[in-house]
């Protein structure tokens, strides 16, 4: 397996980026002060996009934290469902995945 400390560092960096993005989204959502109805309608549409991005970031944060926990427990790199080793190629693409390719296919 690739150096776990490199994977941990990459996951922690991604976690920091996502948390910063969430702060920016929150600030943007709180910044609307216009009273014009047309502008409010446009802002509301933009808010829906921002909220979707925020939900996506929150989901990724949960997955990263779970992967970091698996690292702490010595379980990282093994499928949480079947226990098989997750391929390096899969971890390179999706470093926080809890599933091997076979089990992931069952969940889609």
TrEMBL record:
UniProt-recorded name of the protein: TraR/DksA family transcriptional regulator
Top-level taxonomy: Bacteria, Pseudomonadati, Pseudomonadota, Alphaproteobacteria, Rhodobacterales
Keyword Zinc-finger included in the entry's annotation: yes
Pfam families to which the protein is assigned, alphabetical: DksA-like_N, zf-dskA_traR
Source organism, top-level taxon: Bacteria
Start and end residues, zinc fingers (dksA C4-type): 79-103
Source organism per UniProt: Profundibacter amoris
Chain segments annotated as coiled-coil in the UniProt record: 1-35
Database matches in InterPro entries: DksA-like_N (IPR048487), Znf_DskA_TraR (IPR000962)
MF GO annotations: zinc ion binding
DnaK suppressor protein-like N-terminal domain span: 9-71
Domain Zinc finger DksA/TraR C4-type: 74-107
